[in-house]
Amino acid sequence: MDRTGYTDAGLFDNALVMIAVLDKRGKIIAWNHAAETITGYSRDSVLGTTTIWKRLYPDQQYRNSVTKRITEILSHRKYFENLETTIRTKSGDSRFILWNTKEIVQDGETHAIAVGMDVTSQKEADAFRESIIDNANVLIAVLDSQGYVIVWNRAAESITGYPRNEVIGKRDIWKHLYPDAEYRRTITRRITGIIAEHRYFENLETTIVTKTGQQRIISWNTQQIGFHGAVREIAIGRDITEQRRAEEALVAYMTEMAMRIKQPVEIIRDNIQEIVNLTRAGKITTDEMMMSLESQVRNATQIMANVQEFQKAIVDKNSQIPEAYREFLNG
């Protein structure tokens, strides 16, 4: 037995969570090895004192807020569960601690056992994941099994115009993004059919309407995952509006260019054919032939200049044109 008489000394001291036992006056009467390791304060410097909490919570305002929360909890019951606070260790580091307490009576004395789990690594990992999700340049939405949105990242806000406080905990965002009922039903049927066969979909293009009324083309990818026994649906949407506009511009360029050069090229072809015919018939002198050919060269040069000017205008106007096409057009 350890000096407090509560538990086996080895089990108490080798626990992976910090354990503190307080008497009814708030003095520490037990402080295990994990408590020493996590806080940096040795057992000898803590036992018999009540000052450890001022050291762990040096900021008075924060300490008062923690005390107020504990007081409110204890006014309803004699313990608290999973109370998260941030402590300051002896070395000045901050650690996130998840507290659970229980009140017991031992030899007629009422004592409180406080068990603190250091969740700093988990919190930092969660914060890192949240940072990645929030700073991704694609729309990320996570839905629970009932279709309620539980994650709506910054790109989702930027692309759709809907802030997360209007989306989280709700499932009507899709009615806002697809306000036309018939189009929404069409999309729903497509998604239902794909999911029934594959349980996910890739590169599904739809057109959403933003909060400001703009239309954006989104390429969707989804994945279903299990999370603590629950099903979560991750939807990732890439805004390809500018890409599609650039592709449309390329098609328009090709169509316009074909129309622009068709007639001039036909004229040059006909002129050259006439020169060939006259040459075969011996009805054209060498000088006349040279003059006529030089004229066709000038016509062809002018056509090339017009094409290059048009290509530059297309490239300058459409920043999303793929690099390979851009190099070709600038060539």
List the helices and strands and how they pair.
Elements: H1 9-14, E1 18-22, E2 28-31, H2 33-39, H3 43-46, H4 52-56, H5 60-74, E3 83-88, E4 94-106, E5 109-118, H6 120-135, E6 139-143, E7 149-152, H7 154-160, H8 173-177, H9 181-198, E8 204-209, E9 215-227, E10 230-239, H10 241-281, H11 286-317, H12 323-330
Antiparallel strand pairs: 1-2, 1-5, 3-4, 4-5, 6-7, 6-10, 8-9, 9-10
Tags for this model:
331 residues; alpha+beta; Beta-Lactamase; 3 domains; five-stranded antiparallel beta sheet
- Second-tier CATH architecture of the largest domain: 2-Layer Sandwich
Shape descriptor reads elongated
- Largest beta sheet: strand ordering: 2-1-5-4-3
**By CATH's scheme, which homologous superfamily of the largest domain applies?**
PAS domain
| CA radius of gyration | 37 Å
- Assign the CATH class of the largest domain: Alpha Beta
Structure description:
- By secondary structure, this protein is an alpha+beta fold.
- It folds into three domains: 9-121, PAS domain (Beta-Lactamase, 2-Layer Sandwich), CATH 3.30.450; 136-239, Beta-Lactamase, CATH 3.30.450; 243-330, no CATH class.
- The protein has helices spanning 9-14, 33-39, 43-46, 52-56, 60-74, 120-135, 154-160, 173-177, 181-198, 241-281, 286-317, 323-330; strands at residues 18-22, 28-31, 83-88, 94-106, 109-118, 139-143, 149-152, 204-209, 215-227, 230-239.
- It has a five-stranded antiparallel sheet with strand order 2-1-5-4-3. Strands 7-6-10-9-8 form a five-stranded antiparallel sheet.
